[in-house]
Write a structure and sequence with these properties.
By secondary structure, the chain is α/β, with parallel strands linked by helices. The chain contains nine helices and 15 strands. Bound molecules: flavin-adenine dinucleotide.
């Protein structure tokens, strides 16, 4: 890896450059390598794992994301199949594991039930009245589902993908771009998450701040999710969340948020009470109405945008990245046809 911007000059016109080294960028880069083995694929990222938003995510697979009109119908299945394949290997290696999950809602069944999850999961059923009282106080949560889903421990997962990428000859450059013109390549894939607000001038992008606690609680073996309170076990810690603060750019840990998250978690799920807090993390979800998955012609370049995954980027990154790589492939095919 190199120092900021010093190696951007080594990028050639026909390299495929992915800007962004979060989960979306690294997934896209791996897929580009697979599709175009004769091309040099380069990732340029201001921050690398474990310092990206992706590293803060609890990594639960529960599809509630809205796709742009007219596309994305197959996204849940594409992502699900991608992670199911990885779940066959050791979670210590890939970061992907099977996870039983209980979702509770005090508002209505539509806040926890999901036709998409029902179609994907082998085990999916409503919670029994007795199970509903696992979330406290008794009688508050009237709706709930139990399902077998997947959890993606992002730090382990990005490490796994990055090792594969480097093994296959990929390059990672640590640098912040202020314009796509700083790189010579004709094809750029923009996976900069919230960074696209400046880099692509996308004013629709807004942060939704999330603060979470990472705790030691090895007795927690299922995901427990009730309204805004969640407890999600990963490979190295359990994530306890969380906040959703719209338009808030604050990346600092706020002690009052920590207290509120902890108090609500213990009140709702007393089984977490004995946990030891290991760390507190903050991430800014890249919110827009829909993720942007499209090609744009920009002067002498083609920019393929793959950003704006808000609260669902870990889960949906395989699908949108597969779609973007297909778009790049179609571009090459149409160029070949014109020659
Ligand atoms: C508290 C919390 C919990 C979450 N839980 C879940 C969950 O359970 N399941 C789920 O699916 N999702 C979850 N998410 C959402 C998920 O984390 C995001 O959707 C995802 O991380 C977005 O990934 P990304 O690669 O687009 O962005 P990032 O991880 O932010 O990566 C962006 C990359 O682009 C780089 N970059 C930005 N601007 C520039 C620039 N100008 N030049 C060079 N590089 C640049 C950054 O440095 C970084 O490398 C959660 C998020 C938070 C905050």
């Amino acid at each position: 890896m190199s120092r900021p911007n010093e190696n951007l000059a080594s990028i050639r016109e026909d390299d495929l450059v992915v800007v962004g080294a979060g989960v979306v960028g690294v997934t896209t880069a791996i897929l580009l390598q697979e599709k175009f083995p004769n091309k040099q694929v380069i990732i340029v990222g201001e921050k690398l794992s474990p310092s990206t938003t992706s590293d803060v995510a609890a990594g639960i697979f529960k599809w509630t994301m809205k796709s742009p009109p007219g596309c994305g119908e197959n996204w849940p299945k594409l992502s699900w199949d991608w992670y199911q394949k990885l779940a066959k290997f050791s979670p210590k290696q890939t970061g992907v594991s099977h996870l039983p999950a209980l979702f509770f809602s005090s508002y209505g069944s539509e806040f926890c039930e999901s036709k998409i999850m029902e179609s994907l999961c082998k085990v999916y059923r409503k919670l029994t009245p007795r199970e509903l009282n696992l979330a406290q106080p008794d009688g508050k949560f009237k709706y709930g589902v139990y399902l077998h889903t997947l959890q993606i421990d992002t730090e382990t997962y990005i490490k796994f993908l990055t090792a594969k990428f480097l093994e296959k000859g990929g390059t990672i450059l640590e640098a912040k771009l202020s314009s796509f013109d700083e790189i010579r390549s004709k094809i750029v894939i923009n996976c900069t998450g919230l960074g696209a607000r400046e880099l692509a001038g996308d004013r629709e992008l807004t942060p939704i701040r999330g603060q979470v606690l990472q705790v030691k609680a090895p007795w927690i073996k299922s995901c427990l999710y009730a309204d805004d309170v969640y407890i999600i076990p990963g490979q190295n810690y359990v994530t306890v969340g969380g906040t959703r603060q719209y338009g808030d750019w604050n990346l600092n840990e706020e002690p009052h948020d920590t207290s509120r998250i902890w108090d609500r978690a213990v009140q709702t799920f007393p089984c977490i009470a004995g946990a030891q807090i290991l760390d507190v993390k903050v991430g800014l979800r890249p919110h827009r109405k829909y993720p942007r998955v499209e090609m744009e012609e920009c002067k002498d370049k083609l920019i393929f945008h793959n950003y704006g995954h808000c609260s669902w980027g870990i889960m949906s990154s395989p699908a949108t990245s597969l779609e973007i790589v297909e778009m790049v492939s179609e571009h090459f095919e149409s160029r070949k046809a014109k020659l």
